[in-house]
């Protein structure tokens, strides 16, 4: 019996792979995944106060999310600039017209632009393949028009996909996904020309919501993550993503802890400070075809049957 995960990607234990090499002998590829999102008023979404999240008008939660676009993101940009980091911007296409000043800031800094759906209030779940194709085409075209760069990467809102999403995105020029947290290295999917790049849903500032962890504890988690990946990289390069949300990490009381993380990681001698685009590009260069299967197998695979 073939399961959907076997059709989408093959099992590959990391201990059986040839060592992955990063540029200049670096051992850990580090990127900041900056979630730049629009939330529609009156629709339930990620919330600071779940008790009011279902109300028709929810000033507390909507205002909290909107703080990220008005204030928080500029605080994060200051931190990234301080440590010479370019963001991998996970961009809702609605941001392009609603918050153009943020797009200008990213273009000035040479950010990598990834598609992140139209808004975080719209998911593809329930769309037909034709509807999803048109929806994703508009998302991609809008981002390309406003940023000057057609996205090569994708993170679904709430990391959601349909069974057709990888194939459709590949047709639209996307070459890698962040939705599948299955590895510490990139790996190819059984969709020709498509790979997965690591993205963290554990070392992710969303973990700080509801008091699950404090900002100080989160900074320790991030540094622990780097230290372990650095040890593991003796057997081949690893990837560390640091996902940030402006309405969370952009809050004043968390700024010094974000600086603590970035200061620690950027000071490491074995770190490659990069973007998700560059990670995917380098992996494609050093591994032009999947390790576990010949090229003719890849082109015959149809995991959406």
Write a concise keyword list for the protein shown above.
single chain, 305 residues, alpha/beta, TIM Barrel, four-stranded mixed β-sheet, 11 helices, 9 strands, disordered C terminus
Set out the fold topology.
Layout: H1 4-8, E1 28-36, H2 59-82, E2 87-91, H3 95-98, H4 100-109, E3 112-115, H5 129-147, E4 153-154, H6 165-171, E5 176-177, E6 187-188, E7 195-196, H7 215-232, E8 238-244, H8 246-249, H9 255-266, E9 271-273, H10 276-286, H11 295-300
Parallel strand pairs: 1-2, 1-8, 1-9, 2-3, 4-5, 5-7
Antiparallel strand pairs: 6-7
Structure summary:
The chain is α/β, with parallel strands linked by helices. It is 39% helix and 12% strand. It is built from 11 helices and 9 strands.
Report on the architecture of this protein.
The strands form two sheets. Strands 1, 2, 3, 8 and 9 form a five-stranded parallel beta sheet that branches. The chain has 305 residues and is of the alpha/beta class. It contains eleven helices and nine strands. The two termini are 13 Å apart. α2 packs parallel to α9. A hairpin with a 6-residue loop joins β6 and β7 (195-196). It has a single domain, classed as TIM Barrel. The protein is globular, with a radius of gyration of 19 Å.
The averaged pLDDT comes out at 91
The structural class is alpha/beta
User: Ends: how far apart?
Assistant: 13 Å
Describe the oligomeric state of these chains in a short phrase.
Answer: single chain
Domain tally: 1
